[in-house]
Structures are given as structure tokens and as C-alpha cells.
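Folded chain entry —
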Amino acid sequence: MAIRLRHVLVSLLLAGGTLACAGSPTPSPAPRPEDERSTTDATPTPTSVPDAAAPAPPRLKLVVVGDIMLGRGVATANADPASTLRHLRPMLRRADFAVGNLESTLSRRGAPRQPGDDSFAADPGVLAGLVDAGLDAVSLANNHVGDYGDTALVDTVAALERSRLVAFGAGRDLEEAARPAILEQDGVRVGFLGFNAIGETPEAAPGGPGALSVSMPPRTGPLDREELRRVLRAVRRLSRRVDVTVVMPHWGQQYTREPGPVQTMVGRRLVEAGADLVVGGHPHWVQRVDRHQGAVIAHSLGNFVFDMDFMPETMEGVVLTATLEGPRIVEVDYVPYRMDSTFTPRRVRGATARRVLAGLGSRR
């Protein structure tokens, strides 16, 4: 695999706007103010040299995939659970930025907290396969990263720190959970922030591990407006530091096509705060895409790799691909796929593709 050159920066998102860097030993230098640039008082001699054409902005690809769970039935069906990514790996590897939602712990420790077999854990060895598949960062802001308790959650964060994958959305404490990932390629900086609105994973606190959280329907009660304001402030701060801001909420009602009214409103508020792209997870079905103030709100991409073979909709989804021209998203497209009996996603075409894409609605 050809390793793409990329600086990984981490910016601290806390009230007060303190900046910390934790993915790159040296942050990109800030540009000098205009009054520090080299100038001369001499009157330039007129010349006939034509103005040089401005260079074209870099054209980059951002790829986002849905919920990834490599434990339980996926591990039973595959000696190497990460091998399930092999058919869509070329798409991920070609991307300049590739991100997904990792919906399990990566630890062999802890005791299950969810009822029945609803506690999700994958072997830490799958990390090498995720990196090889081309993923650059993963959101941990979901309701399953805490399934095996605080120790396993911290193990997961530590394992990701040792890998080439950047994690965001959960951490050892609130400071770490609120810290976004910032990826840079060809001078273009893309920032990612995640939050969990489903509960189950503990809410990160100043002294305790968990996920950055917002209480909201349908799972965690009425909308907590102060928690939402905290996230909106974080989005504003992030948008001032990067060219493209991506927010990944874990929200909504499972097994439905349509987002609820509060979810729709929160998506719009995120855009108004500075998000260029909102990509949700948790419903396990493809949900409607909205547009607001020129930004795309993809409420759910569906499962990417998950052992939910009890209905057709949970075995299919879409890969979101955004084309960037310099600091702007100029196009968003969707690649449909369906998982086979080993929970391996494979691209689909024809009538099957049209049916999967229909779940996105008419606004995409």
C-alpha cells in the first residue's frame, strides 16, 4: 500500500478555545500577518511580464462510511474480520480522507453491560486491517464503545493511539472526548467532531471516560439545550481552524427511513454553526438526506459492516463520497452496496442500487 503523505493534527475543543496537538509532533505553522511579510519601498519598474495564472486548487476526495462492528457474528464468519472490507478497499484507499463509525470496543478486558448479546467487542488485532483498508479516522461517539466498561473504553482509545487511525468523539475524559480530529492533505484541512445522542456509553466527564454526548429524542429524553449549545460552540471553534468541518452524530430511531423532527432541527443547527457536512449513524438503515444552507445532512448511511442479517435494510447501505476543490465541497455522491452472508459489503448496481439509493430521498 502506498502511504499517502498526510499531517494528522488534533485540536482541543473545550470552552475557552484552547488548542492542543496530539496526532502530529509539529502543527502546521500559522501564516504570518500581512505586516510581517517582506515589503519594499522602491517603486517597481514597469515590465511587460504577464500576470501568472493562479494555480488550480487541489481536487480531493473525502469518503465516509457507516457503522462498523467487527465482533460477534462478523468474527464468527471471518477468520480475519477486517477482511470484510476487501471489496470496497480500493475506494477507501484512493480517498484522501476516509472516515467511519467504529461501533465496538477493541479490548479483551471488561464485562458486558448490555443485555443479551448486545455488547459489542472486537479483537484489537482488527486495527491492522482497518488501517490497511485505507481508513484514516474513526468516530467513537456511539452507544457501544462503552459496552465493556471504562477499562475497555480506555483500552480502545489507547489501541487507536498506537495505530495510524485517529479517534474522536470519546476518550478518557471530557477534554479528550471533545477533541476533534483534523486531517490535512495538500494544504486542505478537514476537521471531524462526533457526539452520541443514544446513551448507554457513559457521558464523558472532566474526571471520567465516555463519549461527548447530547441528550435528545428518541432515546435519551427531551433535548438538552445546554449540551447542544456546548457542541455548537465546539463546531464554531473547529470551523474557524479548518477548511471543511464534518460532524458525525450518533442519533435517531433504529430501523426507520425518516429522521424525527428534533433530529432534523439539530442537523440544521449544526450547519448554521459551521458544519459543511453532517453524517449520522445508529438507525442501521439508510435515511433521508437533507440540504440546508448549501450543506448536506446525511442522517444515516446504514451499516457498513455489521452482523444484522434479520432484515434486508440492515444488510445494505451507502458510502458517501465528497469531492473537494481546495477548501470547498463541490459534489457529494453515494455508492450503494449490500453485505453478503459473511457480512462483506459488495457494491451493487441496477435495480438493487436504485432501491438502496431510494432510501436517501429526493434531496440528495
Remarks:
- The domain at 59-358 is CATH 3.60.21.10 (Purple Acid Phosphatase; chain A, domain 2).
